[in-house]
Amino acid sequence: MVRFLFRFIGLWLLAGAFVALVIDGTRSVAASRIVLTTVGEAWSVVHRSSLEFFRAHIEASYPAWAWDPVAITFLFAPLWIALGVLGVLFALLGRVPARPIGYSSRD
Q1: Is this prediction's pTM over 0.85?
Q2: d(Cα 82, Cα 73) in Å, to the nearest integer?
Q3: What is the pLDDT of residue 22?
Q4: 107: number of CA atoms within 13 Å, CB side?
Q5: FRET partner for 30 with CA separation of 20 to 30 A, picked from 12, 22, 58, 94?
Q6: Which residues touch 106 (CB under 8 Å, ≥6 apart)?
């Protein structure tokens, strides 16, 4: 059941990554330059107060220098790459283990 859930979540994340890639591609063609939607932009559009709470929590719980690496590596990453990586990780977590080779199934 858990494998199914991981595969299901991974599939939806990969579908979201594809949609984000198509949206960025369409916006790039229309603007005649490369336009990428970052995770931070998408998060602030969906739920701005949770992004501000996350930032305040990181700044309050960890040293002052801890926010910059989080912001640079995660919040400024292109959305389609972040969703794609998370989707692949969930799909790998939910994969069915391979059957051993060389053993008869009639035993």
Answers
A1: no
A2: 10
A3: 97
A4: 4
A5: 12
A6: none
